[in-house]
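pinning this so it doesn't scroll away 📌
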Amino acid sequence: MSTAPHGGLGAERIHVGFWTDWTHGRVFGLTLTLKEEHATYFTNFLALFINIVVIAMYIVHQTRSTSKPRPASYHQGQAVLRNTGTPFMTLWSSLGIWWTWTRSLGLNSRERVFLVISFSAAVFMATFAAASIFSSRIVRLGLEGEVLLRSENCGWLANNHTDIEREIRWGSHWRQVFRSSAILARSCWLEPDESADWPPDCKQFTVPKIDLHAEVGVPCPFPEASMCRNGTDGTMRFWTDKIDSHEHLGLNAPVEERVQYMQEVVCSPLNDSLPYFNPIEQNHTMISYGERLNHSYTWKVASDLLDFGGPVPPYHIQATKRFADMSYTGYRPIKELDVDGAELQLFLVANSVFYNTPSNDIVFGSTRPPSASTWCGAQGSFYAQPLLAIGCTVQHIMCNPVKESCTNLYSNTTDLDVTQQATGYLIMRATEFSSLGNILSLAGATSMIAQDYLQQDVGLCSLSLPDNQTAIELQNWIRMSLASLQATFRNRPWNTDGAGLVDGSEDSVGGDDSLKKLCYQQKARDEGYAAINVLAAGLILGVGILTLAVNTCLAACVGGLQRYYRMGIDRQREWHSQELLQIQCTAFEARNVGVWKGRENMVPVTYDREGLVECIHEPTTTRDSESVDGIR
């Protein structure tokens, strides 16, 4: 079982075989998933499969062929074209013929043809290299390709407050997810933007990150605008582009079955000067933003006290939430915070940190000097407001990409078909699991970037924070939430017996066909496997098989046509006469070694199996160079 977004998926969760990646459509998206070591063999095979140089050499040989007298360089070139099977050897031999004859007898226009042949061979070599690169691109190895996940059991680990073991498992699982999401949010959602430069952990999802936009100074999102501290100056809006269920969340489906999801989060520190934020006595404050059944919270903070009796964490966060559909009713906000149709997330931040210099952040601003020297080693240490609350409204929008219409995620819309409604339902439940409230309830202050500024081994002492630290923290938390949303879908096909899993209900394992169908449509990236484009591989194999067939029968077929139409007989004879075995036969006959027949065929033979005298290796006497000086 994989609980972290960057964990290995496990062989039992990955479908090995054929499937359709709907990113590229029914035909172009046909994909074969293999283990990486098997795909490597396939890649090497494709790279070597296509070689049309033999066909090209035959065509050039026949084009140059003539029965007229030609110099020896011509016949050497024809022999090279007849017997050299690779572009490199053709290039090397042709350059050798041109260079040797030019040095020996001077430049002649007839030898320039070997430069053309050499150039053509070089082009073939470049083309072959390009074909090798192309064949490697149709096989995407490891995290460059995508795999299809398969499991009979789909869902997410559910909490059960009456089962302590399951509750512990639930908390442990989601802490791992949120911890991994924090790493992804800080390493993958920043620069660089190019996927080639992303670390391997960033490539676990079909899309490494979801774009998030930010704006500061927007209207207060609550019914009572005075609830926002500093009015619009401290209010921040974050929103995503359309998050595609196929592209971003990995639910493999054709366009007509996809949905698109958008999220808008508007946050503001809450006004601490209203009666809801009530100091009841020295060093004690009561905050009343609504009822949370059977829960109240008490924190001890250091702030101005030097002896506060016992350990105090630098930061502490407590979160609560109210979902837009009221599915979680444990928290009932006051009417001044209750936005109809929107999710409400409320965070209480306790701050016991001393900063070395002042800052002006709306939550973490450190402008208050302590009444006495602190152990941070400076009389001028500063501390921030010990306790503040941040409220966020979250709007969830669902869109139909086919009809280009959008509506609230929690509304009962008829604008989506059955599969789209099931997908929207999964997104709704996934956003609840990956909500800001869950992240901060389980990850707490460990999710804060401000922790990086704490001085090691000095407890509550910290470097000063930037003036926009609140915006930085909120943006990081929302990025964690979006990364967790992706991880939630990636982790949905579990390799367990299904115990304790929900998709919001147990329908994905049993009765709901639309949810069960989605159980077999999750895709992701994983090391150790390769995705092969079946169409491209099939084209290469088809062209390769055709090439082999033409290589095998071209000379015989053309020769048969030449004999039938009585055309080009001399060309055919020259082609056969310059075959390696024919050249060997000619050499034997020149020495009167053996009696041969079948000179018109590809393979000449002797009349019997007589032993041949091995005198062919002895040098022969040639005419003086002066006697052939004029023959060129």
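📌 and the second one:
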Amino acid sequence: MAVVLSGLILAMLLGALDQTIMAPALPAVAGSLGGLDQMPAVVTAYLVAATVVMPVYGKLGDRYGRKPTMQVAIVIFVTGAVLCALATSMPQFIAFRAVQGLGGGC
């Protein structure tokens, strides 16, 4: 039981931490991707996607179970993180942050 609880706490911590962790690095990332004027969209894309998907995950958790729903959310979150690391432009980065938000909303 302790292992399950620890895993759940870690997954929830990653989702909550990712909502705010981008702020210190955002100017450097936006500068390297050439989109300083689009910085607010990076944070907004993540938060809007995470907020919109929360009730959906609730319904999916009721229908298919909490564990499979959480596993799918983690896969989406990690996929979004990898895509963010591979982004070559600011619009790509914003879109991939939205993908990451879809996973972080669980």
